[in-house]
Specification:
It is a single chain. By secondary structure, the protein is α/β, with parallel strands linked by helices. 35% of the residues lie in helices and 22% in strands. It has two domains: 17-116 and 202-292, HAD superfamily/HAD-like (Rossmann fold, 3-Layer(aba) Sandwich); 119-198, Trehalose-6-phosphate phosphatase related protein, domain 2 (Alpha-Beta Plaits), CATH 3.30.70.1020. Strands 1-13-12-11-2-3-4-5-6 form a nine-stranded mixed β-sheet, sandwiched between helices. A four-stranded antiparallel β-sheet has the order 7-8-10-9, with helices on one face. The longest helix is centred in the middle third of the chain and has 20 residues, at 162-181.
Length: 293
């Protein structure tokens, strides 16, 4: 068993150090790990944030880098996203990597698919909420509804002004509140979006735990109440990099056993141990990792 690094708290802080600045220390851990698991968020981490969610693409340079990492001995790369599985795969366009989609509700690994056991139930509820939201949000220009199977997102990045956003949010609340109060759904915030997710507490961290826990792992049994992975990672050093509030689940899950970094500004509190300033710094770090393995 690889020696475990000192246990790190999962509490949020705004004092995380830059991961590139910490490279000498981090390099030693990466080089010495028998197995390396690299989890990467998509939007805002690998792909630039765009005005309309449908326009997001993976830059060619980044795609080539991920493909190269995935072919290294002892390395597994997983793209982690709130996007639906087919949507995510079409935007990344790589076959021999792992996909954790819809916040961990869908996983594809080595050609094998896993779906949350309550998938059909969640989809029925989300479809009903989406139908009501489509009707109530139709009058608001620049407010776009994105159904994603188990979840849905309301994007308001293209809304023309603050008044439109405020009115759309009130309409959103009118629709969603009864479902939320009944425990059927919960609402999370992203970058210029509102997301409706199943009421069961499940996120990207659970998807990561499913993979790190080994065959047959049940994330509900190896993720504690703080969101931390409690299973045996079997000589795996895990990395997770993301830029959004939904990525905090991932940071909490693997910080005890790996390396975590949040992309973006330095003032947002995070459970990640490190920060990276931009997508460019993410690529720079991944190039260093590729050179080390």
């Amino acid at each position: 068993m690889m020696p475990m690094s000192p246990k790190r708290t999962s509490a949020k802080s705004d004092r995380a150090a830059n991961l590139l600045a910490a490279w000498p220390e981090v390099r030693e851990r990466i080089a010495g790990a028998p197995k390396l698991f690299i989890g990467l968020d998509f939007d805002g981490t690998l792909s630039p944030i765009v005005q309309h969610f449908a326009d997001a693409r993976l830059p060619g340079e980044t795609k080539g880098l991920i493909a190269r990492l995935g072919k290294l001995p002892g390395v597994e790369v997983a793209i982690v996203s709130g996007r639906a599985l087919d949507d995510l795969k079409s935007r990344v366009g790589l076959r021999d990597i792992t996909y954790i989609a819809t916040h961990g509700f869908d996983i594809e690994r080595r050609g094998r698919l896993w779906h949350h056991p309550r998938a059909a139930e969640f989809k029925r509820v989300t479809a009903q909420v989406a139908k009501e939201l489509a009707r109530e949000l139709a009058p608001f220009n620049g407010v776009n509804l994105e159904p994603k199977g188990y979840t849905l997102a309301v994007h308001y990045r293209q809304a023309p002004d603050a008044k439109t956003v405020a009115m759309a949010k009130r309409a959103f609340e009118r629709v969603v509140s009864p479902w939320r109060e009944a425990g059927e759904v919960r609402v999370t915030l992203g970058k210029r979006l509102l997301e409706v997710r199943p009421g069961e507490p499940w996120g990207k961290g659970h998807g990561l735990a499913m993979l790190l826990g080994g065959p047959g792992a049940d994330a509900r049994k190896i993720v504690d109440t703080s969101g931390a992975f409690t299973g045996d990672a079997k000589d795996v050093l895990a990395l997770y990099i993301g830029d959004d509030e939904t990525d905090e689940d991932g940071f909490k899950a693997i910080r005890r056993i790996g390396i975590t970094a949040r992309v973006g500004g330095t003032t947002v509190p995070t459970a990640a141990e490190y920060r990276l300033a931009s997508i460019a710094e993410v690529r720079q770090f991944l190039e260093l990792v590729a050179g080390t393995r």
